[in-house]
Amino acid sequence: MLKPSDRIVILTGAGISKESGLDTFRCAGGVWERVRLEDVATPEGYARDPDMVHRFYNDRRRGLLQADVRPNAAHDALARLEREWPGEVLLVTQNIDDLHERAGSRNLIHMHGELLKARCGVCGAITEIRADLSVEDDCADCGAVAEMRPHVVWFGEMPLEMERIYQNLATSALFVSIGTSGNVYPAAGFVQEARINGAHTVELNLEPSEGATLFDEKIYGPATGAVPAFVE
Ligand SMILES: CC(C)NC(=O)[C@H](Cc1c[nH]c2ccccc12)NC(=O)[C@H](CCCC/N=C(/NCCC(=O)O)S[C@H]1O[C@H](COP(=O)(O)OP(=O)(O)OC[C@H]2O[C@@H](n3cnc4c(N)ncnc43)[C@H](O)[C@@H]2O)[C@@H](O)[C@H]1O)NC(=O)OCc1ccccc1
């Protein structure tokens, strides 16, 4: 069905990191059951209580840096696909963890940002971070005081590299969505973009997502089983 030169675009969400020990957002016991999205993942929430937002992301960052949190078989299979597929494989993730990179994925877009990076609210400089972030942190580049925020895309903010993503969706022969519930836009609209351009669309998830009916093919089950089997 696919020609070796064909482009493949893959979208991943929190479900692919679940079996690595990282919580999803909307499943039972998920992140948004514990904290209000409006308080910790919006610019308004940050303006209201930056300490609360820093605590939220510092906790997740420490969780990500735990020794037992590492890429799983699904992350590994996608890195292998990128290495072995003769055509281009672009991996677009909504996840802010670094498990795709640790698995070896390179042609990767973090459309919602990265937990191990901070950004200056004044000059936009981006720095790598592994320790806690707080309102005390100043910008090493422009010296702005207390302006360092998590380099993540909050609700109401424009996701990253949207142009490059739409260009690749417009020329993809295969679009695969893995471990996402299809609730958050514009990511939830990518399947429609891919379909419009004639791509074959596949959903790999634990259960049907909001956009399940838009996929040509659906395979349900844990990612660590479904993704390696699909890549094989
Ligand atoms: C809630 C929703 C209604 N709101 C939005 O979508 C909003 C508003 C909006 C825009 N357009 C719309 C159109 C209609 C309605 C609303 C909107 N969108 C925005 O504000 C976006 C910005 C959204 C980004 C917000 N930031 C996040 N995160 C970063 C921070 C952080 O992480 O803290 S979103 C957050 O939700 C994303 C989606 O969640 P999922 O990854 O899908 O996780 P979820 O828990 O929901 O699902 C997990 C799935 O995995 C499955 N699963 C579980 N275990 C496993 C397993 N083991 N194996 C396989 N699958 C598994 C489960 O079954 C489940 O289906 C996450 O990735 C995460 O990034 N910005 C924007 O639109 O800018 C303008 C614009 C417009 C056009 C074009 C460009 C720009």
Automatic annotation (TrEMBL):
Primary site of residence: cytoplasm
EC number: 2.3.1.286
Positions annotated to bind Zn(2+): C120, C123, C139, C142
Catalysed conversion reaction: N(6)-succinyl-L-lysyl-[protein] + NAD(+) + H2O = 2''-O-succinyl-ADP-D-ribose + nicotinamide + L-lysyl-[protein]; N(6)-acetyl-L-lysyl-[protein] + NAD(+) + H2O = 2''-O-acetyl-ADP-D-ribose + nicotinamide + L-lysyl-[protein]
Cofactor note: Binds 1 zinc ion per subunit.
InterPro entries, A to Z: DHS-like_NAD/FAD-binding_dom, NAD-dep_sirtuin_deacylases, Sirtuin, Sirtuin_cat_small_dom_sf, Sirtuin_class_III, Ssirtuin_cat_dom
All copies of domain Deacetylase sirtuin-type, residue ranges: 1-232
Binding site for substrate: Y57, R60
Key words, A-Z: Cytoplasm, Metal-binding, NAD, Transferase, Zinc
EC top class, as a word: transferase
Active-site residues, Swiss-Prot/TrEMBL: H112 (proton acceptor)
Cofactor: Zn(2+)
Keyword Zinc in record: yes
Compartment(s): Cytoplasm
CDD domains documented for this protein: SIRT5_Af1_CobB
Role played: NAD-dependent lysine deacetylase and desuccinylase that specifically removes acetyl and succinyl groups on target proteins. Modulates the activities of several proteins which are inactive in their acylated form.
Xref: PANTHER family: NAD-DEPENDENT PROTEIN DEACYLASE, NAD-DEPENDENT PROTEIN DEACYLASE SIRTUIN-5, MITOCHONDRIAL-RELATED
The family this protein is said to belong to: Belongs to the sirtuin family. Class III subfamily.
Domain notes: 2 residues (Tyr-57 and Arg-60) present in a large hydrophobic pocket are probably involved in substrate specificity. They are important for desuccinylation activity, but dispensable for deacetylation activity.
Protein name: NAD-dependent protein deacylase
Gene source species: Skermanella cutis
GN (gene name): cobB
